[in-house]
Write a structure and sequence with these properties.
Two copies of one chain form a homodimer.
Chain A (H helix, E strand, L loop, with lengths): L14 H21 L14 H5 L11 H12 L21 H13 L10 H17 L13 E5 L2 H20 L7 E6 L5 H8 L7 E4 L11 H13 L3 E8 L11 H10 L3 E5 L10 H4 L10 E4 L1 H4 L7 E5 L2 H8 L34 H37 L3 E5 L5 E6 L9 H15 L5 E5 L2 E7 L7 H21 L3
Parallel strand pairs in A: 2-3, 2-4, 4-5, 5-6
Antiparallel strand pairs in A: 1-7, 6-7, 8-9, 9-11, 10-11
Helix pairs in contact in A: 4-13, 5-13, 6-7, 6-12, 13-15, 14-15
Family (chains A, B): Belongs to the group II decarboxylase family.
GO molecular function (chains A, B): carboxy-lyase activity; pyridoxal phosphate binding
Keywords (chains A, B): Decarboxylase, Lyase, Pyridoxal phosphate
Chain lengths: ~500, ~500
Amino acid sequence: MGSLPLDASLRPLDPEVFSGESRAVVNFLAEYYRDVEKYPVRAAELEPGLLCKLLPEAAPENGEPLEDVLEDVRRDILPGLTHWQSPSFFAYFPMNASTAGFVGEMLSVGLNVVPFVWAASPAAAELECVVVDWMGKLLGLPQRLLFSGGGGGVLQGSTCEAVVCTLAAARDRALAKLGHENIMKLAVYASDQTHVTFQKGARLVGIPPSNFRVIQTSASTGYGLTADAVRAAVNRDVADGLVPLYLCATVGTTGLGAVDPVRELGEEARRHGMWLHVDAAYAGSAAICPEFQGYLEGAELADSVSTNPHKWFLTNTDCCCLWVASPRALTSALSTDPEYLKNVGTNSTGKPAAVDFKDWQISLSRRFRAIKLWVVLRRYGAVGLRAHIHRHVTAAKWFERTVAADKRFEVVVPRKFSLVCFRLRARFPEDDTVDDLNRELLAAVNSSGRAFMTHFVVDGKFVIRLAVGGAMTEMKHVMDVWELLQGKADEVLRRYQI
Amino acid sequence: MGSLPLDASLRPLDPEVFSGESRAVVNFLAEYYRDVEKYPVRAAELEPGLLCKLLPEAAPENGEPLEDVLEDVRRDILPGLTHWQSPSFFAYFPMNASTAGFVGEMLSVGLNVVPFVWAASPAAAELECVVVDWMGKLLGLPQRLLFSGGGGGVLQGSTCEAVVCTLAAARDRALAKLGHENIMKLAVYASDQTHVTFQKGARLVGIPPSNFRVIQTSASTGYGLTADAVRAAVNRDVADGLVPLYLCATVGTTGLGAVDPVRELGEEARRHGMWLHVDAAYAGSAAICPEFQGYLEGAELADSVSTNPHKWFLTNTDCCCLWVASPRALTSALSTDPEYLKNVGTNSTGKPAAVDFKDWQISLSRRFRAIKLWVVLRRYGAVGLRAHIHRHVTAAKWFERTVAADKRFEVVVPRKFSLVCFRLRARFPEDDTVDDLNRELLAAVNSSGRAFMTHFVVDGKFVIRLAVGGAMTEMKHVMDVWELLQGKADEVLRRYQI
C-alpha cells in the first residue's frame, strides 16, 4: 500500500495509492462477509455515547495510515453495528448488499459524475432512462409509466423523497387551478397501515395535518384499504368543502405486508380527481416474478409508482425507482429554471432523451445511481433476480407452515411475500399476559445475538415479524431461527406457568 | 474472477466472487484515473437519445459476465460522460473524488447498515455525531452549533435537503404559534445571487411563491446582501401583514463566489425573529484554513449552517453537513413518532448519544455517510486538507493576476476563494458584441475538449467562470487553460475584427 505525502504534493487520486488502498478495503470487506455470522446480529446493548467517549474530540492534525483506520473500524465500530448483512437479520425489511450492487456503486462513486442536467453527463442521464424502463418492464408496469410510453422514471434515494415529490406535483397541479391560498383545503388519504413517512411527506409539503385521513383497515381484508372506506372519507371531506388531493396505496405494507387493491383504489381516485401513488417499496421487487405481478394490476390508473431496489433487489443503499405517468406534472413542481439553463435537446415531453433529472427530484446534485442498478440487472439477469426472490419466498412459506403447525403459535395475517407475522397464542380466553409473553420472547431472541427480528402492533396485539430477504439468507438460517424461537418460547412459557 | 451461478444457488455476497469482481473494478477505475486526460472533458456533442438506441430495450434474461459489463462501460458510457474528475474540469463547482473518500464510501456501501434510529446501528449514529463535531470545530463554528454545545449536526445528501429541512423547522415553529392557516403570511428572504434551490425548497414546503423576496445586490458590495436591503424588504412585508420567516445568507455564491455578511444578517434576522441559514456549500471547506474563517464570523447568530464536503473537501458524492442550534426545532418538524419507536437512550436534548437521525432529515432510510467523512479526515488530517485548499487558491490567485495583466481581459469581481470570474473586455465604448465574443470564447474552449468551464450572467454581462478545485487539478492545468484561452481569444477576436 502506497504511503501518502501530506504536504502540498498531496495527490488524492494517484492511481497506485488508489489501487493499493482500495484493495485493502476489498480484503477487509471480504473478511467481514466471511465472518459476519460471528457478530451478534443486533448490536450488543451499548451505553449510548460510548463511541463518542472512545474517539478523540477533534480530527487529527496529521493524516494517519489506512491500516490504523481499518483497525479502529474493526475494534471500535464493528462491535457497535447492527449487522444488516447477517444472514440472520430478519428485522425491519432487508437492505440488500451484493457483489454487483457493490461494484456498480464503486463505478458510480469512482467516476463521481453529477447527472443533474443532461449536458452535465449525457450518458449518465440516458442510462437512467434506459434502466428505469428496463425495471418497469420487468415488473410488468403499464407502458404509460415508462419513457417509451410517454411517462418516465427517476432513481431517487428513498420512498419518502418519492412521496414528497409526487405530493408536491399533485399539490401544485391543484393549486394552479385553486390558488395557493386553498392549500388549507387539500386533503390526503392513506390507510392505518401506510408507512408513517407518508404523513411526514404530507406535512413537509405544507398540507395541514388536520387534513390527513388515516383510514382504518381490518383483518377481514387482510388489512388492505377498501375503496368503500376511501369513498366515505372523501365524501365527508367534500361535504365539508375540502378538496381530495392524493391517495397512497401500498403493495406490501411495512407492518404486515398487506396489499391495498390498486385497481379499485385507482378507480376511486379517478372519480375524485385525486393523484394515486402506489408505494411498493418492499414488495415491488417480487413483481419480477409472474406470480406476484397481479398485485400491481390496475397500475395503469396510477399517477405514480415507486419501489426500492435497495431493499430486496440486491442493489446496495440507496436506490428508489419512481415512475410517473406525467413527467410534466412532476417537473412543473420541481423545475428551478423553466427557461434558463435549458441545454441541447432538453424537452418536456418525457421522451427518453435529454432529461434534466434535477427537475424530477428534490435536490439539484445527484449520484449516478443508474449504473449501479444497471450492473445488478446485467450481472444477475431476470433469471437470477427471480431466483433470489423465490429463495426467500420459499423459506418464508416453510416458516409460516411450520409456525402454524405448532399449537403454541399462531400466524397473525396470511403471508403474501417473504414477511411472516406471528406470535405465541393466548393460552386461555382473556389471557392478558400474551403481549408480555411475546415481548419477552422477542427480547430473548434478539438478546441471544443469533438473530434479529422486530415487532408490530395490530388491533392492539403485539406481533413478531420475520422478514426474510437478506442477500446471504438461506433456508438453513430460517430453520435455525425457528429452532431458536422454540427454545426461547419454552423458557418464556415456563416463566409464565401459573 | 469467480463465475456466478445463476440458479437458486445464487450467492450474492460470496467472499471470493466479491473480492475478484471488486478488484477488477478497482483496476478499471485506476486505469480511468490514469487516462482521464485522454477524454474530452465535456462529453462530445451527442445526439440526445443515442445511448438509448445503443442499449437493448429490456434487461437481459440471463446474467452476463462482469468483463462484458465493463467493456460496455468503456465503449458506450465513458465517451458520453462529462469527466468531473478531469484535472481540467473547471465548470460549475468541483465534485471531489479521492482515495480516502472512495474507500470510506466502500466501507459504507459494503457494510450497508442503515442508521435511521440509534438502535438500528448505534456505532454508525454515534460516529455521525463525532464526525460532524470534528468538522464543525475544524471550520471554527460556534459551540452552540455542535453536539458538545447543545446543538448538533447531521450528514445529508445535498444543500437542497438541508434547506428544505430547516425551512420546515422554521415554518413549523412559526405555525405552532400562528396556526397553520397563516402559512399564506410567511415570507422568506435571499439575495439575487442565492442559489435557485432556495426557491425550490421554499416552494416545496408550501411557502407561497408570491412571498419569496429576491433582494438585489450590486458590484459595490461584491454582490453580497446588505442588512439595510433586508430590513427594507422585511419592513414592507410587515407593513403588509406578512410574517418574516427565514433569511438565507450565502458564503461563496454559485455564480460569483460572493459572500453575504453573516454577522450583520444575523443581527437583522434576530431583530425580526427570522431563522438565519448560512449556506456555505462550496466555500465552507475553505474555512479549515484560518485565513478564511472570518467569512463565517457571526455564525453564532445563525440557526443553521451547511457545507458540502462533496464539493471541495475530497469526500465523494454525496455528503452535506448541516448544523443546527436547536435540534428540537428540527426534530419537531421531521419526527414521525414523537413517542412510539423511542429506543434505549433516545433523548431530545441533542446530547451526542442515541440520536435518531431519521428525525433530522427528509427520509427514513439513510446511508452510513459518517464513515466516509471520518476516513477522509483521518487519512488526510487537517494539514493535508488545508494543503488541498491552498493549492487551488494559489492557482486561482495566479490565474486572476494573469488575466488582470492581459489588457484584452477583465476580472469581473474580485476572487475570494478559488473561483475566478472574468471575460474579454469591451473593445470600445458601447461594444454590443462583447457578450457574443465571450460566449464564442467559452464555446471554443469547451468544444476543444481540453477544458470545461461554465458561465454566469451578472448585471446583464456574460461572465466566464473558472472554478479551480479538482482533486487532480494542479498549477500546470490552470496554466494550460490560460494558454488555451489566449489561443481561442486570438481566434475569436480575429473573427470580430472590424
